[in-house]
């Protein structure tokens, strides 16, 4: 069972200025409040800002995008009402280039490839099913992957998204027989002890919404033996 891990004392801030703050989410953290009632990362970041900048009143923080709870990596928040709509537009227009790392047990059919599927979401199961052809209520999903490292028992894939669908990477990799390590929902053979999955939002490149300067953010993966091997 995943637990909310973050507090302001161990929050890993990757970038911050007056307009945005970018943090490295750990597995188990939820980005925004949900029915679980667990403290979301957004509230942890607000607390961090309030304390660091000695803000007595309510702290403004806009949620720009989310990551699945068992996933780790880059999450962007807006610190001003000026930055939020600009960031929302930037992400909606696919002007933010996202790169993910995924650890899988099986060798993909090719060392690198473009995957195109039609994903149909099942809200009751909180799961998306990939199909080769379009089916009713499905959405087209496209990603590129490459094997960038061979580990002892696993493969490290680097993934670039062309679309941003619900559970897209998890569903598409499962469809080709390459479930992400620990991802029981998408056919992994066993879970990780902490309930995480080995999917990490590694890199984000975009133009700052206010300063208009290019930004490239890289997030170190969580500390464990598999991720350590990926970096060695």
State the major sheet: 11 strands, mixed
What order do the helices and strands follow? EEHEEHEEEEEHEEH
Shape: globular
Proportion of residues in helical segments:
10-25%
Beta strand count = 11
Sheet/helix structural class: alpha+beta
- Mean pLDDT metric: 92
Radius of gyration: 18 Å
Distance between the termini: 29 Å
Taking pLDDT < 50 over at least 5 consecutive residues as the criterion, the unreliable ranges are 1-5
Treating each run of at least 4 consecutive H or I residues as one helix, how many helices? 4
β-sheet strand percentage: 25-35%
How would you sum up this structure, described in words?
There is one protein chain. The radius of gyration is 18 Å and the shape is globular. Strands 1, 2, 3, 4, 5, 6, 7, 8, 9, 10 and 11 form an 11-stranded mixed β-sheet that branches. With 232 residues, it is an alpha+beta fold. Helix content is 16%, strand content 33%. A hairpin with a 6-residue loop joins strand 10 (199-207) and strand 11 (214-218). It contains 4 helices and 11 strands. The two termini are 29 Å apart.
Task: Outline the fold blueprint.
Elements: E1 13-16, E2 20-25, H1 41-52, E3 62-63, E4 72-78, H2 83-92, E5 97-104, E6 112-122, E7 127-131, E8 139-150, E9 155-161, H3 168-175, E10 199-207, E11 214-218, H4 225-231
Parallel strand pairs: 4-10
Antiparallel strand pairs: 1-2, 2-4, 3-4, 5-9, 5-10, 6-7, 6-8, 8-9, 10-11
């Amino acid at each position: 069972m995943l637990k909310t891990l973050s507090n302001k004392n161990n929050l890993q801030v990757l970038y911050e200025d007056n307009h945005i703050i970018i943090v490295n989410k750990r597995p188990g953290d939820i980005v925004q409040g949900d029915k679980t009632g667990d403290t979301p990362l957004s509230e942890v970041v607000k607390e961090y800002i309030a304390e660091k900048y000695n803000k007595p009143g309510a702290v403004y923080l806009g949620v720009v995008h989310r990551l699945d709870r068992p996933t780790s990596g880059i999450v962007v928040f807006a610190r001003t009402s000026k930055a939020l709509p600009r960031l929302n537009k930037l992400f909606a227009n696919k002007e933010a280039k996202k790169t993910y790392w995924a650890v899988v047990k099986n060798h993909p059919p090719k060392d690198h490839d473009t995957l195109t599927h039609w994903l149909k979401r099942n809200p009751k199961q909180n799961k998306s099913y990939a199909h080769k052809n379009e089916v009713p209520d499905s959405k087209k999903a496209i990603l590129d992957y490459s094997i960038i490292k061979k580990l002892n028992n696993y493969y490290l894939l680097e993934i670039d998204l062309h679309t941003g669908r619900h559970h897209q990477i998890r569903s598409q990799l499962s469809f080709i027989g390459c479930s992400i390590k620990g991802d029981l929902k998408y056919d992994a053979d066993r879970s990780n002890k902490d309930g995480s999955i080995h999917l990490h939002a590694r890199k984000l490149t975009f133009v700052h919404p206010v300063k208009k300067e290019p930004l490239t953010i890289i997030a170190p993966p969580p500390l464990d033996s598999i991720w350590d091997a990926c970096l060695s």
